[in-house]
Specification:
mainly alpha, Four Helix Bundle (Hemerythrin (Met), subunit A), 70% helix
């Protein structure tokens, strides 16, 4: 049980570090300290997040693989559909962003540079399509692997995303005011409204 406890701690630490480094206060601190090189902050942030995520996933791969239930064709089919659907949604969501800015390659030189409020593409149906795709893909992986470490990953990623949305939406309300509040009222958070 100890390796799984370490896995949970690592996911919590990853989520906490990811959130702290993305917070407005920490960005302001680094903007003052880094001066003109602050334009590379997002690139460094994404690079660090990627390296730590690869390390965390590598650790998970080292954990014992004990299936929670036997392989069934229909579960495998559902797992593939969820995973593939999630990846496609995430890729489609990324197309709605300026990828150079998203990755930090052409980031603004200052926090004072406003972002553009977008509601096109998948943003017409859900406010956070990238997170929707991520959640679907992670739970698809869990169904395919049906292991305890995949379950822990699914729960940790889902909880982190849900908590992160609260903070992200506070920032969006601060940046876009009533425009975002009205958008939030009309458009579902993660999964489209059926009615």
């Amino acid at each position: 049980m100890r390796p799984y406890l370490l896995q949970i701690i690592l996911w919590l630490a990853y989520g906490l570090l990811h959130s702290v480094l993305a917070s407005h206060q920490v960005k302001c601190f680094f903007e003052q300290k880094l001066g003109s090189t602050f334009r590379y902050y997002r690139l460094m942030y994404n690079g660090l997040a990627f390296i730590l995520l690869i390390g965390l996933l590598w650790y998970q791969r080292l954990l014992p693989k004990e299936r929670l239930w036997p392989v069934e064709w229909w579960v495998d089919g559902l797992a593939s559909a969820l995973f593939l659907g999630g990846v496609l949604i995430a890729l489609k969501a990324l197309r709605g962003y300026d990828l150079r800015e998203f990755l930090g390659i052409s980031a603004p030189a200052s926090l004072a540079t406003p972002n553009e409020f977008r509601t096109g593409g998948l943003l017409r149906y859900v406010r956070h399509p990238l997170y929707t795709g991520t959640i679907l893909a992670v739970w698809g992986l869990f169904l395919r692997e049906a292991t305890l470490e995949a379950l822990i990953m699914g729960v940790c990623v889902t909880v982190y995303i849900r908590i992160g949305i609260v903070y992200e939406e506070r920032k969006l309300v601060r940046d876009f005011g009533d425009t975002y509040v009205e958008y939030r009222r009309r458009v579902a958070m993660l999964f489209p409204k059926l009615f």
